[in-house]
Amino acid sequence: MRIVKLDEASRKNILADLLRRDPNQYGTYADTVQTIIDTVKRDRDKAVFAYTREFDHVEINASNIRVTEQEIEEAIKEVKPELLEVMKKSLKNIREFHEKQRQYSWFDSKPNGTILGQKVTALESAGVYVPGGKAAYPSSVLMNIIPAKVAGVDRIVMVTPPGKDGKVNPVTLTAARLAGVAEVYKVGGAQAIAALAFGTESIPRVDKIVGPGNIFVALAKKAVYGHVSIDSIAGPSEILVLADESANPRFVAADLLSQAEHDELASSILVTTSMELAQKVSEEAERFTSQLSRSDIIRKSLDQYGYILVAESMKEAIETVNEIAPEHLEIVTRNPFEDMTKIRHAGAIFIGEYSSEPLGDYFAGPNHVLPTNGTARFFSALSVDDFIKKSSIVYYSKEALHEVHQDVEAFANAEYLTAHANSVKVRFEEEES
């Protein structure tokens, strides 16, 4: 991995480099995605079947697009019992964490005759996109479905591309069943997002779409936003490790590579105050890479977006972390909890040398759907909040309104909205006359 001494110029160059990974920069695909969306919106099932044939090389029709109960039962039998038990443990941790995020309606009644409040209501429906084909991502299934279930969403739909045999990966289906979802459709790509957003004869529309996917899925979610809600426009995975001379270089190198293997566009960054650690981590990363199964992807990722940044002080290192606003942040320093309090921008924070990032991906409980490409400056992890909406409650008695009606009218008149003022004034016109 390349080692760079931090200064203002190098920091700006690295930030510009990382921003090139942003899905919003991939304008060359936007027209293709928009065509797919428009065609599905117009031709509905016909378009979905045609695109599945073109992109996934599978014949799907109205009779087999929805996964049957028999297919789910058969899938569960194919999953190794050991993996099934691990998935159940993970599900329990994820559910318990998200149950603590629940919000409830509240009302505040005052003696002057007013009642103000907030009514919390779960969304009626949500669609979950799960990448498919040869790959299986049961962790994504659990992370996207469980918060929706905890929130109380009535109808949760999962879409995922089928393999060339026309079937959904058995581990993916098993995870859906464990999480409590039986409505699963064999469709992927931008056409799946369009079907969820606008509905087809086979797939009723939903209110919100969540879940990761490739660039076509990301751009499709961006294109349908406004017709439906979405979680975020997810970019390639990223990890940043903040470390000082006390860190174990083998642990740090291993953690950096855990994200580099995701994708050639993944970003792995070490920010440290120790040049000695920087050199050791670089050596360990090379040693590990030569042994790992996805070494080609790891090398390309590190060559493009892998950095070891050496700062003059911990203050400068933390400033750099906040400027990058990483998706995953590991803090491996002498005083990790103290340093954590100075972090303003990160999707998830892992504290100490035994809190490696894959814990968050699979098992610990917090959601692994996180903001990328610096959007941790203003976005949060997927949560129960993503599956609820809040309605304000306002009640004023006649007496309570009487006390303030002239104030309301004055405010409305100041904005030259006389109908607004009249709406309040008319209730007391007999008194005024």
UniProtKB/TrEMBL annotation:
Q: Which co-factor is required?
A: Zn(2+)
User: Kind of enzyme, top EC level?
Assistant: oxidoreductase
Q: What does the record give as its pathway?
A: Amino-acid biosynthesis; L-histidine biosynthesis; L-histidine from 5-phospho-alpha-D-ribose 1-diphosphate: step 9/9
A Gene Ontology biological process term = L-histidine biosynthetic process
Q: What is its EC number?
A: 1.1.1.23
Q: How is the cofactor bound?
A: Binds 1 zinc ion per subunit.
Q: Which reaction does it catalyse?
A: L-histidinol + 2 NAD(+) + H2O = L-histidine + 2 NADH + 3 H(+)
Keywords of the record: Amino-acid biosynthesis, Histidine biosynthesis, Metal-binding, NAD, Oxidoreductase, Zinc
GO molecular function terms listed in the Swiss-Prot or TrEMBL record: histidinol dehydrogenase activity; NAD binding; zinc ion binding
Q: Which residues form the active site?
A: 327-328
What domain of life does the native source organism fall in?
Bacteria
Q: What does this protein do?
A: Catalyzes the sequential NAD-dependent oxidations of L-histidinol to L-histidinaldehyde and then to L-histidine.
Family membership, please give it: Belongs to the histidinol dehydrogenase family.
Q: Which protein, by its recorded name, is this?
A: Histidinol dehydrogenase
Instruction: Name the source organism.
Output: Lacrimispora algidixylanolytica
